[in-house]
Structures
1.
Amino acid sequence: MIIIGITGTIGAGKGTLVEYLNQKAHFRHFSVRDFLTQEILRRQLPVNRDTMTHMANELRARHSSSYIIDQLYQQAVQHNDNAVIESIRTPGEVVSLRAKDNFFLFAIDAEPAIRYQRIVARASETDQVDFQTFLANEAREMQTSDPNKQNLRQCIAMADYHFDNNGSRRELEQQLQNTLEHIL
């Protein structure tokens, strides 16, 4: 069983990597967003980026910095298939997954203006923001000294493979295919 974790900036293309891994390479998908959405709905709170961030930070502070990813990893183990876990946001999550066999961390990024256009187009419940709010959300998630809060900068630095998604979808898929040839 191979586990691929996906980290990256907002709107960089994490979902596109997951879609390719799921459809073309038959990896089972486990989503932090879905995990958090279930808990948010259970608590009857609004589903938005602020609530997701707060919920994730609360769960990590209560249990451990890797709690959410550990829960998703346990689900993956039960299926015993190659799996992709989206989206890794704390160094503790990376450390926890690195302790497992056959784990690879992928990081993806693109220019902010391109990423903003993508989130506007996907129009999910967490993406209904103006460009300044988008940049502020990202700044909040990029770096912290609190191990239970998001630190995308450090997670990206810890990645085994980096993907530049400033080009076309086809170019990204080619980068991913080349990487998969090395690890599968």
2.
Amino acid sequence: MWGVCFVAETDAYSQYRETQIMTASQGKLVVLLYEGAIRFMDAATAGLESKKYDAVNNNLLRAQDILTELALSINFDVGEIATKMYNLYMYFNRRLVEANIRKDREPILEVRGMLVSLLEAWRQVADKMPSRPQPGGLNVSG
């Protein structure tokens, strides 16, 4: 009985998240991606503490996937800030690769700290953007 209830709750949550993503503005999508990357880094750090290295690897790979998606979504037509954001995302990715290879929490904490700072800035931007998604894809260049 509990299994059925849990599955129904999981399906409902998945549907809620999908709706949240499909109706989000560009700024809100960036916020959701940042929050996801931070959540995966936190899970990787917890995995390091409990020596669950498969969980560390999986969570760091998921965080890297998000950072890669952010980097690939940049609109380089907006100028120099786009190149700087791209380079920053690539730096974050390199640091997470290093963390994964060495099973070292310091690079994770470094990237996490910078993402938290950027997240706060994106939250402010997202609050000022229109609530409906804009045509033309995601622009995460700032």
3.
Amino acid sequence: MPKSKELLSALDGAGYDFFAGVPCSLLKGVIRELDADPKWGYASATREDSAVGMAVGAWMAGRKPALFLQNSGLGTCMNALVSLDTIYEIPALLVSSWRGEGGKDAPEHLVMGEIMRDFYDMLGLPWRVLRPDHVAEDVAAITQTIAERSVPGALIVSKGILDASS
């Protein structure tokens, strides 16, 4: 099974039922799956902070949100994450690409690639790097952590894991 489908299956199994985000080439496989099947009800946002707002509304309506975003969008959505999700204890899952990982990417991604994990730590948000051979386990672990702490948390995705062909 392609990793993108495996991830969606794990998210579905963990109860996630609202999906929104901003496209990223590192997440293209899973975004393509979300767009192709109306059962997911994927809402494409123009900005990351808009996706966070959608997730908050979905959670208030009784849904369990998962957001897809490029790590460079963390700066764009930091205020929404802190002033909405964190303060109001909304346990949304952020599926975040890891652009700039290991100093390999376009120059504009290198800084966030280097500091992303520290960025999540600074905000007090739990994170976990998705391991290709442990997708369901990683989804379950981060889901449990964010539910226990009632905060958003991130599942960080390295390049190549959720490509269209994977």
4.
Amino acid sequence: MNLNRILSFMLTTEQGSRFGLATAGLFTVLALLSLLTLLGGWWSDARLSSLSGSAGERQDLFSPLNELLTAVPQAHLFGYRSPDAAYMPITSSQLRLTGIIQLGSEEDENAFSKAIISVQGGIGKVFQVGDVVQDGVKLTGIQADAAVLDNNGHSERLPLQRARLERN
């Protein structure tokens, strides 16, 4: 019923015929824009595929893009992720880390690292990864500023104590 009223309005009145012509014109413009976009994509693809020269020359075309893509992970766009040990709770054991000796990086298998830990205020002793510091507490890692401990199955952090600077 409503469709008949709309069709009769468009076919019999001057306003309806103008509306119909405007709709047809808009459809034509959108069809032409779609066709031009499609042809432009084909044209750019054809130009890329017909580049003369070897694959090495074609690779030079994309080298700035490749450089940007390799630089994105190092840009820390969403911040810097702290090491997992930074979120570990600090140990409540009666231990004090008085020194760290570290040669090489933490990831290096041949790295030499030792920690000097004093137990219950005693004299500091030298420990390496895997040593038992006291009953139930084992040294599981040595970092640049802390030692990582396994305290009865719980990972804990023993930070390096630094001397406070005094003001004169």
